[in-house]
Amino acid sequence: MLRKLPSLIIPLSLLGLALYLYPIIEQLPASQLVLIHFLPVIIGAIVLVFCFKFNRSLLFFSAIAVLLIYAVMQWYLPLAAYVEAKIIWLSLTVFLPFNMMLISLLKERGMLTWWGGSRFALLFLPLLVCMALAKFFPDLLRPLLTWRFIDVAFLKHSVFSQLALVMMILAVLVLNGRWFVQATAQNSAIFITLLAGIAMVYFKNRDTAMAVFSIAGMLMLVIAVVQETWSMAYIDQLTGLPGRRALEEELLKLAGNYSIAMVDIDHFKKFNDTYGHDVGDQVLKMVASKIRQSVSGGKAFRYGGEEFTIVIPGKNSNETKENLNFVRTSVGDTEFRVRKQDRRQRKNNKDSGKTVQVTISIGVANRTDKMASPHEVIKAADKALYQAKKKGRNRVCG
Length: 398
What we know:
There is one protein chain. It is built from 15 helices and 7 strands. It is of the alpha+beta class. It folds into 2 domains: 6-234, no CATH class; 244-397, Alpha-Beta Plaits (2-Layer Sandwich). The strands form 2 sheets. It has a 5-stranded mixed beta sheet, with helices on both faces. It has a two-stranded antiparallel ribbon with strand order 4-5. A hairpin with a 2-residue loop joins β2 (299-304) and β3. The radius of gyration is 27 Å and the shape is elongated. The two termini are 39 Å apart.
């Protein structure tokens, strides 16, 4: 749980900043407030461009969901009749959490696709229908939106209807669950943007407060796009370790004394051939996790395929062998159980659920006068890895 909290630091900070700033911003001159009211749209347009460029459809539709409701509240409701505006606002308090919850449960399927078109329809059509009903047939929606299905005294004084409260609580639980299972920048941003959106609809009669919370939501989403794009470029999606590009940048920083270890999973092809590539992926995840947990004073990277690289600054190869042996034994002592696949696959795979041993071989080398560049050290570590394989695997050489 504690390891997941850092992903919420930036979104929560923006939300807290919005709570602090909106009373101050409301005191600004009217000429400056006009710009504040348009800022959500400007920042939202930047979010949409970034999302489209980097194919982040969930963040794209989250931004549209918030911007759509903000635009209706900021520029349509003030022009509508009182009853019409009230019904539309009640509808918005239900649509916002419902849309954010629905978006969080969907997969990345693109924007200019059939799936993308269906999501546009889900965001726009129900709202347009409700706006039309509120204008021409207000009595059809009002009983549902104001229905009190729980007779509790404190709920009678709530700004939101009971239907909206239920939807908000459900959305918070679902989005919090999504974040808890996978604490990515995207899930964190969508979760806290929901809270910013709830604050936005709460301040229905305070245009500047609405704008400030909408700006906070848009900033959360644009930061999430940047973080997700950085993660795609530098983090290996399967293992969670930094990838080859991150390794290349790390090598440029090395100076003085350092060691580099090359790690290879023994008989990895056999795992793939015997149990399938899904099990091979499970092996990679397990080994990466053990390397990350057990390596001391160094940083692990996924080099490619079944190979990993460990960079240990400030130590020569002899000084690192004890720790590398600990890494090796932590992998070898871990029971790896082949996870059961679907029923059809299990019938054809008698080994499904079997416990197998996974071992790794490690080659290590350090910088010397003859091997002054990191890439030369990596080549030497590769040769040491080959020796470890040749001597029977499951050992450290160098």
